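Notes taken during the Thursday session

The instructor put the following on the board and asked us to keep it in front of us for the whole hour. The protein is NAD(P)-dependent dehydrogenase (Short-subunit alcohol dehydrogenase family). We were told not to look anything up and to reason only from what is written here. First, the residues (259 in total):
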Amino acid sequence: MSRRILVTGAASGIGDEVTRRFVDAGDEVTSLDLKDPSVTVARHVHCDLSDPASIEQAVAALDGTYDVLCNVAGVPGTAPSEVVLKVNLLGLRQLTESVVEQIAEGGAIVNVASIAGFGWPKRLDTIRELLATDTFDEGLAWFAENPQEGNTYNFAKEALTVYTMLMAPVFWESGVRMNAVSPGPVDTPILTDFEESMGKETLDALSTFIGRHATPADIAGPVLFLAGPDSGWINGHNIVVDGGISGAVNSGMVPPPEI
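Then, after some discussion, the predicted structure tokens were revealed:
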């Protein structure tokens, strides 16, 4: 049975692979991105997640109900801090909360976070303050008033992980599940940006330890699993998809990477 799917970031990397798999399965995909996807989709809607007005326009262009929203779009830590927070958290939040009422009962939302967000427990109270803001602009103002240590990419992914856990029970009241997938390093066109922002030596060491970096296909499978009926009782969960990096760190086998 064909489903109606929304995918952000469908033009490249993980989003491209996720979109391709939905299309190959016969689903009707609407892509939300700055660029046109290479995969032939049912519809493409221009959407700039760093711009609240663009998000509003994109949402207004959507019709009917959908079964799945996959929030895959993201920018690396080499982008300006405000842009990173806008795209990777605030824009995602605005889009999600604007379309959740259009997601059918039994539907699913899947967010692509990152193992770079592993430090969320240490900043939980701070993150909850940020997420207590009601709007995109309020969130941006909070961030300006509360600068965070380290890479904004890490902080945004920490906040996205917590957002997934906090809001999943809320959306569940309408019969919609929300989960996250946290990849380790993935071999996509922006891998060099991550090498620059997180350290090429660090990422090379992770690749050597595991044997390789992930491919978009490695991440797309878990995304589709969380979007489908077989994960129907999984809600508010963050699935780590990193080839074993986190397991080695959490067990004390290797020290946490400095990213």
